[in-house]
Amino acid sequence: MEGRKPVGVIILNWNGAALLRRYLPSVVKCNSDDIADVVVVDNGSTDDSRQVLAAEFPGVKTLFFSENYGYADGYNRAIKELDYEYSLLLNSDVEVTPGWLLPLYGYMRDNADVAACQPKLLSETDRSRFEYAGASGGFIDKHGYPYCRGRIFDTVEKDCGQYDDVTDIFWATGAALFVRTDVYLSVGGLDKDFFAHMEEIDLCWRFHQKGYAVRVVPQSSVYHLGGGSLPASDPRKTCLNFRNNLFLLYKNLPVKQGRCMLLVRRLYDALAFMMFVAKLDFSNARAVLRAHRDFRRQRGRYAGVQPARSVTVDFPCFRKNIVIAYYLLRRRRFSSL
Q: What digits encode the pLDDT tens for the residues 311-335?
């Protein structure tokens, strides 16, 4: 299947017939037909997704996999096979807005140094607020904790236009990620070993290592349901977040710097473990321990891939300690950092 238009809006679906019915109509209605194809990639669904697509969305292009390759490898396979100049990875629980695609496409077309960008991500359930998974662009602090313009830890800001400028960011949300396909493939795409959570941060870190920029283009906005796979309090989510954050640092920092960073992170994670215990939340406390156990067992797969130098030293906001700023200094807004 060849992409004749420059942009492929690629929606990965797995047993998401209800989400397709709810959100795909907005993507079809608001698509810029002259520049983009909408493609639903079915990841081996066992529900009636394929029947829904055939009966209710006959004009939408489709690509069917015989098995579930997961989020990362599913997208990697689809992007490589579809071969559009630009690929937009769009979650199946995103509602787009009229004209949303043109600012992203225009910006990427006019700025060859940018490997990826994202729109402003707003909450589908509270449309006056940013959405947790990306808000108006992602950052990372000096110890590897991710946060956003508009969201720090569990505090999500109201969108009052305060972050409507195009700016450099460290990572772009995977909920609506616009990438140059050739650059995406050249860095290896999403890391399937992360399974879930922080794959997009790892991907964007590799973009930076190749000398590319990542930016947010808030002139485009979408609404994201979010939290569809695992609730925030689910111990499995806690385990994946802690484990993958360790992978992120171990994989993308030079060996010496990574060792120092991981030592500090172990101390912070020990504190998080004790906080869970103090709250009698033993399931999430065990999840922290399991994350570190899994990291020790699996980190060997990344041995030898660490870069010779760090690309984070001069990056915006990287030197700030978001934990101290948030919990001790009570700075809950990005603008107050």
A: 665 555 567 889 999 999 999 999 9
| The CATH classification of domain 7-224, taken from the options 1.20.1440.130, 3.30.1330.40, 3.90.550.10, 3.40.718.10 | 3.90.550.10
What does pLDDT average to in each consecutive run of 10 residues of the chain (337 residues)? 80 97 98 94 96 96 95 96 97 97 98 98 97 96 93 96 97 98 98 90 94 97 80 85 95 91 94 96 97 95 84 62 92 94
Reported pTM: 0.94
Beta-strand relationship, 138-140 and 114-123: unpaired
- DSSP 3-state assignment of 97? coil
DSSP 206-258: HHHHTT-EEEEEEEEEEEE---SSS-TT-HHHHHHHHHHHHHHHHHHS-HHHH
CA distance 337 to 333: 7
Location of structure tokens 């946060």: 147
φ/ψ of residue 280, rounded to 5: 60, 25
Which amino acid is residue 318, in one-letter code? F
Q: What angle do CA 113, 118, 336 make, to 5 degrees?
A: 100
User: Would the CA dihedral through 31, 49, 180, 299 be positive or negative?
Assistant: positive
Residue 137: what pLDDT? Answer: 97
In order, the DSSP letters of 287-336 are: HHHHHHHHHHHHGGGGTT---SS-S-TTSTTTTS-HHIIIIIS---SGGG
Per-residue confidence (pLDDT) for residue 1, from 0 to 100 = 45
Q: Are 222 and 133 in contact (CB under 8 A)?
A: no
